[in-house]
Design goal:
This protein is mostly helical. 78% of the residues lie in helices and 1% in strands. A hairpin with a 3-residue loop joins strand 1 (367-368) and strand 2 (372-373).
Length: 400
């Protein structure tokens, strides 16, 4: 499947979730300036903002039991960062639109259909797994609320907000808790859509570097084929033309990678922070509580899994871009320049490879906030640091 279709489908999901039209072709997906769509978007994000504010108030001014107060802290932090993540991408809509256009076009003429099919399958698997983790967690939060209602004799609750209070079991309070549950599930759709677009871009850029590497690896074979069928001069001319084309694609990929960093760097950085802080909080609530019910344990485990899965998707796919880009210098060196001979055109073509190989040796490392490197090593460092902080806090609480 071509990147054009993959990116368009990702943008369609954002549009239908209320995030706006991020596709570079005006009117192809929809009109996000239409008054009805603006009302739809405003209603979704207004409900999410109101719910998040009530969660923050519940943390600082609410009177709730320990388990509900812990949920209030987790959701207030998570939803605040989720809104910040989505806002950071919306603020860069024009840049993201241009990024969609450029990513769909670069290297498109040289993409291998089998490789593209593998890429599309990997994107679908990543997005589907993330969707399952997020909504699996939401389902068990609902199960936990029903368990409290029917087995603990309290009330149904998933999202803990400042109003209603813990002791308020009126019909209006119950209705509001159900509405908050619906808003929670609604909020997950644009969040998943924005995160999935970022992951889709990372995977696509990784495969662009693979395509470019294969392009240079085929040059020697093309040169020898043309030289045997036509002449050495014709083969040298083709080689020079191909080298220039490949260098142009490499420069375009480097530029797109920087634009991708600018567009989604804040989203990824906030995802790292969210995973680090929330996972520590969730692990503490899971290990320090006494005899947690099965549904409670499962909702926490699925929430942790969703956060870690998203963290792995961002950091590992960004790390793959760094790795695939590092292989390009070897492909340039072994592209067959030694077959050119000593003609003027041959020397010119060979000289073109020197600065190109030097540029390919510079590491392509994406950074969040221009500081945090998005690599495999960073993923392992974050997970280890997370566990170290959790173990330290856990041991101190147990001592007290």
């Amino acid at each position: 499947m071509k990147d054009y279709l993959v990116l368009r489908r990702a943008c369609e999901k954002i549009y239908y979730a209320g995030g706006g039209d991020f596709w570079f072709e005006e009117g192809t997906i929809g009109n996000d300036n239409h008054i009805l769509y603006k009302a739809y978007t405003l209603s979704i994000f207004s409900m999410c903002i109101v719910m998040t504010v009530l969660e923050i108030l519940a943390v600082f001014a609410g009177d709730f039991p320990d388990d509900e107060h812990s949920d209030a802290v987790t959701f207030a932090l998570s939803h605040t960062m989720v809104l910040a993540k989505m806002s950071s991408v919306v603020a860069r809509k024009r840049v993201v639109r241009a990024l969609c256009r450029d990513a769909a076009r670069v290297c498109a003429a040289h993409e291998d259909p089998q490789l593209m099919a593998t890429k599309a399958r990997i994107i679908r698997m990543n997005v589907a797994a993330y969707f399952a983790c997020v909504y699996g967690s939401c389902v068990f939060y609902i199960f936990e609320g029903l368990r409290k209602l029917y087995f603990d004799g309290t009330h149904f609750v998933t999202i803990v907000t400042y109003w209603p209070s813990f002791s308020d079991n009126s019909a209006s309070a119950t209705a509001f808790r159900i509405i908050c549950t619906l808003v929670l599930n609604l909020m997950m759709l644009p969040m998943i859509a924005f995160d999935s677009l970022a992951v889709t871009f990372l995977i696509i850029i990784k495969y662009k570097f693979i395509t470019l590497r294969q392009f240079f690896e085929r040059l020697e074979g093309e040169f020898c084929d043309v030289a045997s069928r036509e002449s050495l001069e014709a083969a040298t001319e083709l080689f020079e033309r191909r080298v220039k084309e490949g260098i142009g694609m490499h420069q375009e990929l480097l530029r797109i990678t920087k634009e991708l960093d600018k567009s989604f760097g804040i989203l990824i950085a906030l995802s790292v922070c969210l995973s680090f802080v929330s996972d520590i909080s969730l692990l503490l609530s899971l290990t320090l509580a006494e005899q947690l019910p099965f549904t409670t344990s499962l909702k926490i485990i699925l929430f942790i899994t969703a956060l870690l899965f998203l963290l792995a998707e961002f950091l590992c796919n960004a790390g793959e871009i760094t790795y695939q880009a590092s292989l390009l210098s070897d492909a340039l060196f072994h592209c067959g320049w030694q077959q050119l001979g000593g003609s003027g055109r041959g020397r010119r073509a060979a000289r073109l490879l020197v600065p190109a190989a030097a540029a390919a040796q510079r590491p392509v490392v994406m950074k969040a906030f221009s500081m945090l490197q998005l690599t495999y090593a960073t993923f392992l460092t974050v997970v280890r640091s997370m566990y170290s902080v959790f173990a330290l806090i856990s041991s101190r609480k147990k001592d007290h």
